């Protein structure tokens, strides 16, 4: 009797649950990419925002393949998305970020919402497009064909694994695409930076861009939705932008819209200015000059004679008592000008001009302002 342990036969055509063969994996990612980009380039940038023009051939391909993502018809998707842009962060926004991360990600799908709760938008162009109307009319059979029948049959006929195709290329792919797309509604309104505007919640997130074929530069997109790009620099991860650009090169697309660069930069620097203003408010700049009490020059000299170490610079009285012993140039020059006008000395006509830091420090010592007409 042979007591050696037998080695199980390894069948490369079979795979345990949770493991996907290379052949399936290639088709899974290829079909998932095609489904995802057909939504971002078709539903979103072509039909919702009219960021470029496409010929009928490209429109039909996008209309069919995008159906495999299971996100509703073109008209319904674009209607909600236009409402999202027009009523961002309000109750009329169908997936408002202000209702919480879960709601904006998936809650709006499962929670029944009355049609009139969504803000009104113009969809006349969508209602007049025969390809959109055709896709809407046949959406259910197209969805089952592209989302389940085709990927299952392909994997079955090509790899002899109908079950694997049904699980991976159909259900898992469908789930991942929907979750990635919903991240634009949720994470892209919650995590990231706001280089163009901060009045509303949209943010730029490289992570979201990475999993949504370039849709993560959401702060830019909400400010300049007509632009066919989301990532405007060559190094920004935006496969959808590259796909549209390539379609133009082979005459499948045209009129790729770009928002004027000057206006983009204008918005960017306005946001920088707003951020600087907010930071500025956190810093003490001393009492504003127009809020200082008004003294006469006689009151200034009289106060000095009463033992106060005051300096007059640019018509403003400064209390230098706490700074005299810390003056980097020594006490001598300060004490010599106590009770006098030290403007020329401070600005360098006598010795040297003081630094910007010295001027900032001086502003914290303001006590009063001099008026020639003021009385003691």
UniProtKB/TrEMBL annotation:
UniProt keyword terms in alphabetical order: Fatty acid biosynthesis, Fatty acid metabolism, Iron, Lipid biosynthesis, Lipid metabolism, Membrane, Metal-binding, Oxidoreductase, Transmembrane, Transmembrane helix
A single cellular component GO annotation: endoplasmic reticulum membrane
Cytochrome b5 heme-binding domain: residues covered: 292-371
Bilayer-spanning residue ranges: 139-159
Protein's membrane topology: Multi-pass membrane protein
A molecular function GO annotation: stearoyl-CoA 9-desaturase activity
Highest taxon of source: Eukaryota
Biological process terms in GO annotation: unsaturated fatty acid biosynthetic process
Subcellular location: Membrane
Main location: membrane
Pfam family, one: FA_desaturase
Record-linked SMART domains: Cyt-b5
Protein family membership: Belongs to the fatty acid desaturase type 1 family.
The protein, known as: Cytochrome b5 heme-binding domain-containing protein
């Amino acid at each position: 009797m042979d007591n050696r342990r037998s080695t199980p036969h390894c069948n490369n055509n079979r795979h345990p649950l949770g493991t996907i063969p290379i052949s399936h994996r290639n088709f899974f990612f290829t079909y998932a990419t095609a489904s995802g980009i057909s939504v971002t380039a078709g539903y979103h940038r072509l039909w919702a925002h009219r960021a470029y023009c496409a010929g009928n051939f490209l429109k039909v391909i996008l209309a069919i393949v995008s159906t495999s993502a299971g996100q509703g018809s073109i008209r319904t998707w674009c209607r909600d998305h236009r409402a999202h842009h027009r009523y961002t962060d309000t109750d009329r926004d169908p997936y408002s970020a202000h209702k919480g991360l879960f709601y904006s990600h998936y809650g709006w799908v499962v929670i029944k919402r009355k049609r009139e709760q969504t803000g009104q938008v113009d969809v006349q162009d969508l209602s007049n497009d025969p390809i959109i109307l055709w896709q809407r009319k046949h959406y259910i059979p197209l969805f089952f064909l592209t989302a389940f029948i085709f990927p299952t049959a392909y994997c079955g006929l090509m790899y002899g694994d109908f079950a694997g195709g049904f699980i991976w290329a159909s259900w898992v792919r469908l789930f991942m695409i929907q979750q990635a797309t919903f991240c634009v509604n949720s994470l892209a309104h919650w995590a990231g930076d706001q280089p163009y505007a901060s009045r509303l919640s949209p943010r730029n997130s490289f992570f979201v861009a990475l999993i949504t074929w370039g849709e993560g530069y959401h702060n830019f997109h909400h400010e300049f939705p007509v632009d066919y790009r989301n990532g405007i620099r060559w190094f920004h991860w935006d496969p959808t932008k590259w796909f549209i650009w390539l379609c133009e090169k082979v005459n499948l697309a045209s009129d790729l819209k770009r928002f004027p660069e000057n206006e983009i930069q204008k918005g960017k620097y306005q946001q920088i200015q707003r951020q600087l203003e907010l930071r500025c408010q956190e810093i003490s700049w001393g009492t504003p000059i127009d809020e200082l009490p008004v003294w006469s020059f006689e009151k200034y000299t009289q106060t000095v004679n009463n033992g106060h170490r005051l300096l007059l610079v640019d018509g403003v009285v400064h209390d230098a008592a706490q700074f005299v012993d810390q003056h980097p140039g020594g006490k001598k020059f300060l004490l010599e000008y106590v009770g006098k006008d030290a403007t020329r000395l401070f600005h360098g006509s006598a010795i040297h001009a003081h630094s910007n830091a010295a001027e900032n420090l001086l502003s914290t010592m303001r006590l009063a302002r001099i008026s020639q007409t003021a009385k003691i």
